[in-house]
Amino acid sequence: MKLTEIKYVIISILLLTMCISIYARNITVCGHVVGKHDGEPMTGATVKTMFADRIDSVVANPLWIVDDSIADVDYPEIWYQSPFGEVSLETLICEAMPMLQEHDIEKAELIDSTLCINNILIKGLCRVWTKPTSIHVIVDGENRGIIEEYPGRLVGKTGAIKYASNILLIDSVIDAVAIDSENFLLTSCGKTKKMLVVTTKGHYPSVAESGFKPFQYDNGDDYVSDGRYRIVDKDGKIGYATEDNAVIISPRFAFGFPFKNGRAKVTDSGHLEEVKGSNGEYHYWESDNWYWIDKMGNRLGMENEADR
Q1: Top-ranked range on mean pLDDT: pick from 6-20, 25-39, 52-66, 137-151
Q2: Could you give the CA distance from residue 97 to residue 188 in angstroms, rounded to a whole number?
Q3: Rounded CA gap, 73 and 70, in Å?
Q4: What is the rounded CA–CA span in Å between residue 106 and residue 129?
């Protein structure tokens, strides 16, 4: 390397060091311990920097810790709590985690403080403690009995799956969902307040082996929603498969909507209608006989089954 090139490298390194130093000196951090998790203190911090536009790492969704475990809950609307009591913190928590009802919550707190974790700034902390309750466990459609557990251990996108695999030690779990059965009138669940529905690879064929195809939606294969996507048979009947392409509910419905919060709205009758003014581009399914099913295909008796 020539002497001139070495000089340019040295100058570049010095300039970079100066920029980092200037940036570091213009950051003010005021921190305080807001709690502990796994025995380690969690520090909340107010961060101020001269580069006001450097907020790309700040996210609106708070860190959720439910029953002393981090839960993968995505609900930035938690900040919409009303100071006048019209919308309580407990109400918003139940909207974020539909398997909970307000009487399930022992204690909750929302801390408006910026947390710095792995160089990512997270806006705030929401901590929830729940009360033990009865949970009916169903594996591949079979009754596995009733357990007493804190429902908060099953919340979040993967909470139920981790609980079924790591705590209940169920083999080959490909999906699990925790449901608040107080809103459903399931004869198979009796009077238990919660339900854990677990799906394993054991008894389900693949979509390809069954000769089914993905339902076509928005010019492509149906997307996965709540661990399920729609499939169709040669007659156009609708069924559901997992993200791993295991056929959990064989096609038998005239039409069905994607799953959300552990249930899907389906019908055995009806017909396709064109959306007026769409010139044949958009359609919807018209039926007078809608009902709900769980993720195993069992019909749910709703308090208001007409609710859509």
Answers
A1: 137-151
A2: 23
A3: 9
A4: 5
Nearest to 255 by CA among 265, 247, 245: 265
* Structure tokens given for 234: 């040669």
| Dist CA 242 CA 256 (whole Å) | 15
Query: Pairing between strand 63-66 and 120-130?
Result: parallel
Alpha helices, DSSP H, located in the chain? 3-25, 89-96, 159-162, 207-210
pTM of the model: 0.58
Distance CA 140, CA 146 (A): 15
Contact 108, 93 (CB under 8 A): yes
Amino acid at residue number 25: R
Do the Cβ atoms of 163 and 101 come closer than 8 Å?
no
Q: pLDDT (tens digit, 9 = 90+) per residue, 253-267? A: 999 999 988 889 999
- Per DSSP, the residues of 83-130 read TTSSS-HHHHHHHHSTT--GGGEEEEEEEEEEEEETTEEEEEEEEEEE
- Among 64-68, 199-203, 231-235, the minimum mean pLDDT is found in 199-203
Paired tokens of 163: 């609980």
Bridge partner residues of 70 (DSSP): 65
Cα gap 262→239, rounded to integer Å: 15
Q: Using the 8-state DSSP alphabet, how is residue 304 labeled?
A: T
Task: Give the model's pLDDT for residue 200.
Answer: 86
How much is the pLDDT for 240?
Answer: 96
Query: What gap in Å lies between CA 144 and CA 167, rounded to an integer?
Result: 14
Residue type, 159: G
The whole-number average pLDDT for the span 173-190 is 68
